[in-house]
Amino acid sequence: MIVPFLAKAAALPVAFLLGLTGTGRAPIGVDTSAPVITREDIVIHAPLERIWRIQTDVESWPQWQPDVSEATKVTPGPLRPGSVFRWSVEGLSGIESTVQQVEPGRRIVWGGPAQGITAVHVWTFTTREDGVHIHTEESWAGDPVDAATPALQAALDASLDHWVHNLKDRAER
Q1: Quick one: which H or E segment has residue 131?
Q2: Rounded Cα distance, 64 and 163, in Å
Q3: Is residue 18 within 8 Å of residue 27, measured between CB atoms?
Q4: Would you state the pLDDT for residue 141?
């Protein structure tokens, strides 16, 4: 009887992790030790499918996100772990981001280095009675961040605030 009990106990953490992401991997999060971390929340009154489509259609970002001047998928097809896209936002050009995790309609994580800054950006989508709750958080670390933490914190705060409001405007049209 002890062996079946141990087998069940060992299976619980695996089942828990599978339930979290559907991939068998624990959710990837921001770098909680990074000197710059921003979190934003908004409720969008539009279908989840529309919001997800807008947010994950990287090449259309410049059409609704004025701070994004260009965006190109390097990896064809839908975004999935390992997909790469290049984009420019608010004076940072040639950013190459890699998708790290995707749960379609629920969660997407991307990040990578850009001009000495290592970023991790997490988006979570939750359907609620009053709409779709969007939670996003992003961390920045690296020498440029250490050298100008207050200025870069303010820049990231403003950038994510603009992003979620532009997403809301686009999705609710």
Answers
A1: strand 131-141
A2: 9
A3: no
A4: 98
